[in-house]
Write a structure and sequence with these properties.
This protein is an alpha/beta fold and 148 residues long. It is built from six helices and five strands. The longest helix has 13 residues, at 20-32. The radius of gyration is 14 Å and the shape is globular. 41% of the residues are buried.
Length: 148
């Protein structure tokens, strides 16, 4: 898989209890594709608070310690809202490959947020692959992203 992200840096992943199983599947996909993965938790399906995992993922991306992040929770909203509190993070809540593509092409999204309760694991894997290979178009979109 070709990527627009730097494979010399890891991808940071995180999830709450609702996204735990999806996170584990995403890690398998990423490792099979040769990515370094930093798992910021959770590490079980026991009930937890999503900000405890979204903040560390967003911090790694914002600080340049991870090339991008992937977050999963039940609706995707909680992790997305949390990640977007960090300067330099452009977290996108996505549920189709087309939305993922547009988030990368037009918004230069650097954190993908997935709603585990509303998409299949197959759809999730396809969205992750789309996220990793879709390039930011720049041009008129650059000006808009800079305004964020």
């Amino acid at each position: 898989m070709n990527t627009t992200f730097d494979k010399n840096l890891p991808l940071a992943v995180g999830a709450d209890h609702a996204g735990f199983e999806y996170k584990e599947e995403i890690k398998k996909l990423l490792l099979a594709e040769g990515w370094q993965v930093v798992d910021k938790g959770t590490f079980s399906a026991g009930s937890v608070d999503y900000p405890d995992f979204a903040h560390p993922v967003a911090t790694m991306v914002a600080d340049g310690l991870a090339t991008a992040g992937i977050l999963v929770c039940g609706s995707g909203n909680g992790v997305c809202m949390t990640a977007n509190k960090h300067a330099g993070i452009r977290a996108a809540l996505c549920w189709t490959e087309e939305i993922v593509s547009l988030a990368r092409q037009h918004n230069n999204a650097n954190v993908l947020c997935i709603p585990a309760r509303f998409v299949s694991i197959e759809k999730t894997n396809s969205m992750v692959e789309t996220f990793l290979v879709t390039e930011f178009e720049g041009g008129r979109h650059e000006r808009r992203v800079e305004k964020i």
